[in-house]
């Protein structure tokens, strides 16, 4: 296959459009920055001065979630004969993510004027423990960068016949440049262009895929064996635990991402943040449909009648590239180029968010609050820029280790779910939580997760939960909802040990001089953060909101424990 020159021209135009938008947004950011009081420059870069437009906020939040991993991952799961559309979970759990975020997390985070999601940890637990907790969040962001670049590199190499390395490097450089120039302003306004391109490009490709002569009607192959297993897929009773685990992983894991709170905290009010979450959930559902259709068409195709030939993409271990393969061999050339535009836009929209997210955590919580508390705005701008470059390079390097989008997707969100989510719930909604409980919960989550194994990275399980067995691909897999169990165990460990140590010090069992986290002084997680936030007011509405949220999470924990026992009973 020769180099697709027209396609390269189209992609060059697309990249110039995105870069131009980023440069324009950076100039606007500088104008707004000049109006800010001294010392607010970092907040302008990271949070757009907490005055992001509502429509722009909806676009940037949606574009952050609808990335390359989202588009290619859904198509990959739908086409995979061992999975099917019922395992392409991303759109529906994300609705739950945004609704929970809007109802429970937006208000306490926005009203306390935090800069990052780690601010409450730093205020209540201190710098040492907060730094340890930041590490999983930073790793998750680096993996996020990697999975978005993998999706674009695979797509370009298939459709444009452009080297995988060149595809990834060019895309990485463009995203890093405009993120460096304007911070959240550049990221948000380029997201508007990117989301429009994603929506239009994907839906333009769908009619051509559905009417191509090499595929049969997808309604006939949905539940019938044709060229492969039905693309709808099934969830057997002994697989229900794994399906539930994946669903909860995607639904709750996203609530422990800094990129989510960066959009929440950039809103002018918590009400605007809530509206942003609710509106974005609808967009995620709509944007997930084209990828499902692509996977369904690919599963309904006689590949032997195409120029691709046999073996099939599944037999060639190219499931992760099924979307670009379908566009390349089942649509006209000019349509496949439009399709790659959608993937490129999705990749850019997620990658820039991950870059700025990790830069926020390092610059604000580590450099500003620990290393250089007196750092000037100009110095912080350079720290943010260097952080963006470092994370971009790290994520780019990881793309050469694995070509599956789902690997980076699931491993990254896995860390957020099992380690960070229970910590975030406890710090925001349970006053009893303290550094001792957080430490135990953190270690408990890491140890249990490592001992449970992970077939995606070849890590064998030491702890074999009920139902652990070889999957269809011969890999030892946990079919019990073990990640959700680890999350709940971690959450309960935080609360139990926090309460226990609180009693130990308050009753004088141990001397106060041993209280390294100073829990006897009753530090409040809603107090002002060390980098300049305002103290939260004792607003009855806020108190009621927190009480309602606490009751909700307690209720969910109780119901889940009951479900675990029921599931164990059914297994045995």
Automatic annotation (TrEMBL):
Entry keyword Ion transport: yes
Name of a matching Pfam family: SSF
Gene Ontology terms for molecular function: choline:sodium symporter activity
Protein name, per record: High affinity choline transporter 1-like
Keywords: Glycoprotein, Ion transport, Membrane, Neurotransmitter biosynthesis, Sodium, Sodium transport, Symport, Transmembrane, Transmembrane helix, Transport
UniProt main location, coarse: membrane
Membrane protein topology class: Multi-pass membrane protein
GO cellular component terms, A-Z: plasma membrane
Species this chain originates from: Gouania willdenowi (Blunt-snouted clingfish)
Family (UniProt): Belongs to the sodium:solute symporter (SSF) (TC 2.A.21) family.
Keyword Secreted carried by entry: no
Gene Ontology BP annotations: acetylcholine biosynthetic process
Membrane-spanning parts: 6-25, 52-74, 86-105, 125-144, 164-185, 192-210, 247-265, 277-299, 334-362, 382-401, 407-430, 442-463, 483-505, 552-570
Gene that this sequence comes from: LOC114477214
Domain of life: Eukaryota
Compartment(s) of residence: Membrane
